[in-house]
């Protein structure tokens, strides 16, 4: 991408800033990722990595400084650090939440005084990898569904025939099926069939519904536990920011109907690619912004909380 950019720009960049999840950071910097493959999933050197073009084989960028910004915790990377910068959460007197429903489900809750964050294993369902007809948000994927005259009407990326369903449309489908009483609050298919037709050949199976419930409970319990760790309840959170390309497709009324985020629609804001916004802010700064956030932020493991299992199970319902 940088090579393509340089074809139309004669001036070589003096600095390159990168953000990404912890695994991306370690692979890019040539560091061992083995500690992230097994419990307790901890690595010590998560700080700012400064590299030269020669160290990574970028011979076309002689003289540039390459910076991979620090991760906050084992599975909360510098993409979330950038997201905090982009939302201004770290300077807000009110409690704010940032939710990134990407590869992992990263959750941040905090204000200008204290920020805590965690990651949950919600990504496989929302990215389609654990669904019978799941796929990422690419051409042929159903990205959203709405109910028109009691019939499901899909939006398909690329305006072609549907080939599968991605996470945002799964949320829509679950909310609509719940509304139509085709599934119950525990995700059970009332007809006792193994699947329900959605659009054309696309079906949602009983296993798909349960995969969604696991992911939904992970996000909902994460928000609850982080809030209580700060001495508040989710209802005390003033604003919720949904990050990532995935979030752009989400219908907020359906998100709320599933109970994944327990708030009101006016408190939720779709922010798009907060990692990119924050990376731009870091690029034109001197490192002080990241240092300010890192000084307030801490990472926690949800399973370390005594109440985790009880809260998680209590969130394994729809609505």
Quick overview of this protein structure:
The protein has 319 residues and is an alpha/beta fold. It has helices at residues 2-7, 22-28, 53-56, 78-87, 123-126, 167-179, 206-229, 245-249, 252-258, 274-283, 288-294, 308-314; strands at residues 15-18, 49-51, 65-68, 96-101, 105-110, 115-120, 141-148, 151-156, 164-165, 195-199, 202-205, 239-243, 268-272, 297-299. The chain is 33% helix and 21% strand.
Topology:
Blueprint: H1 2-7, E1 15-18, H2 22-28, E2 49-51, H3 53-56, E3 65-68, H4 78-87, E4 96-101, E5 105-110, E6 115-120, H5 123-126, E7 141-148, E8 151-156, E9 164-165, H6 167-179, E10 195-199, E11 202-205, H7 206-229, E12 239-243, H8 245-249, H9 252-258, E13 268-272, H10 274-283, H11 288-294, E14 297-299, H12 308-314
Parallel strand pairs: 1-3, 4-12, 6-14, 7-9, 12-13
Antiparallel strand pairs: 2-3, 4-5, 5-6, 7-8, 10-11
Helix pairs in contact: 4-10, 4-11, 6-9, 7-12
Walkthrough of the structure:
With 319 residues, this protein is α/β, with parallel strands linked by helices. It has one domain (2-123, 212-314): Nucleotidyltransferase, domain 5, CATH 3.30.420. The chain has twelve helices and 14 strands. The protein has helices at 2-7, 22-28, 53-56, 78-87, 123-126, 167-179, 206-229, 245-249, 252-258, 274-283, 288-294, 308-314; strands at residues 15-18, 49-51, 65-68, 96-101, 105-110, 115-120, 141-148, 151-156, 164-165, 195-199, 202-205, 239-243, 268-272, 297-299. Strands 13-12-4-5-6-14 form a six-stranded mixed sheet, sandwiched between helices. Strand 7 and strand 8 form a beta hairpin. Helix 4 packs across helix 10 (274-283) and helix 6 packs across helix 9. The longest helix has 24 residues, at 206-229. It is globular, with a radius of gyration of 21 Å. It starts with a helix and ends in a 5-residue tail after the last helix. 43% of the residues are buried.
């Amino acid at each position: 991408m940088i090579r393509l950019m340089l074809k139309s720009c004669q001036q070589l960049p003096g600095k390159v800033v990168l953000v990404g999840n912890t695994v991306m950071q370690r692979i890019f910097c040539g560091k061992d990722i083995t500690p992230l493959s097994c419990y307790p999933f901890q690595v010590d050197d998560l700080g700012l990595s400064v590299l030269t073009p020669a160290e990574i084989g970028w011979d076309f960028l002689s003289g540039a400084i390459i910076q991979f910004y620090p991760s906050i915790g084992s599975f909360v990377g510098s993409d979330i650090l950038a997201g905090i910068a982009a939302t201004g959460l770290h300077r807000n007197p009110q409690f704010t939440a940032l939710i990134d429903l990407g590869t992992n489900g990263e959750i941040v809750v905090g204000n200008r005084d204290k920020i805590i964050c965690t990651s949950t294993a919600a990504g496989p369902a929302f990215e389609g990898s654990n669904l019978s007809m799941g796929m990422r948000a690419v051409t042929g994927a159903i990205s959203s569904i709405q109910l028109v005259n009691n019939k499901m009407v899909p939006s398909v990326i690329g305006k072609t025939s549907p080939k599968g369903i991605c996470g945002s449309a799964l949320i829509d489908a679950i909310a609509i099926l719940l509304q139509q009483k085709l599934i119950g609050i525990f995700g059970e298919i009332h007809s006792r069939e193994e699947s329900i037709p959605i659009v054309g050949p696309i079906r949602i199976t009983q296993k798909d519904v349960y995969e969604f419930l696991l992911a939904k409970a992970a996000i909902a319990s994460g928000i609850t536990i982080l809030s209580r760790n700060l001495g508040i309840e989710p209802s005390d959170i003033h604003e919720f920011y949904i990050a990532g390309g995935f979030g752009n497709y989400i219908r907020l009324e359906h998100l709320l109907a599933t109970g994944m985020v327990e708030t009101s629609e006016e408190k939720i804001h779709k922010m798009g690619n907060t990692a990119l916004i924050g990376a731009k802010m870091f690029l034109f700064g001197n490192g002080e912004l990241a240092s300010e956030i890192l000084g307030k932020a801490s990472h926690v493991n949800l399973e370390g909380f005594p109440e985790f299992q009880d809260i998680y199970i209590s969130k394994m319902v729809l609505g």
